[in-house]
Please model this.
Amino acid sequence: MFAGRRIVIATKHEKERVIAPILEKELGVKCFVAPDFDSDIFGTFTGEVSRKEDPVTTARNKCIKAMEITNCDMAVASEGSFGLHSEIFFVHVDDEIIFFIDKLNNLEIVAREVSAETNFNGKEIKSERELVAFAKSAKFPDHGLILRKANDNFSHVYKGIRNPIELMEVFNRLIKEFGVAYVETDMRAMHNPTRMKVIEKAAQKMAEKINSQCPECKTPGFGVTSANKGLPCELCGSPTRATLSYIYTCRKCAFEKKIMY
Model:
């Protein structure tokens, strides 16, 4: 169904470095990137452009735009969200959605990877000592940093800083002019190796899901659509919040299968 076909990866942040090898190996496709594709129109991490839609819809819209630009009938895109863990409130997570569209076969498949492996953070700072401490915790210079006048201020934003000398020069410039600066992690994939690894895991999940066929109609993308809680406690046998079973559903024929955890 996919071997030998071209697929456009909707990115301007070098995500093809981890997505392309997986899809080419697992599906036999030929990956390429549209040089004119600008993902920033769908939203930026620094807030100059706010994301209008939810992550799944945004990733789907990226695919559609990339297919329009390239006149290609197959596309894949990812969309990341960052914030606090829903249960462990002091832990940040990287929530990556990856979306696959095959117009030729009328397929749309979604995969997701949620990871606490992220350096996502931001802080108002007033001294070089604070800056150095933040940079160290953010894995700089392997990971990029962003400096700006203030959080949610878009008039002075310096992105993709990976050089210690540049970091200090920009910081001192902001301090001299405004007396304060805001430093944050650059979450764009090409400046964030930790995020790139999470995207790679999401891409692997996507490839596995595409290669998973519905037992009834053989349509690709037979995967988990929901989970049931209630795994019994080993000591007392009472139901817990842990997963008891997964529900697999075919998006085409609606065949459903329950698999115990």
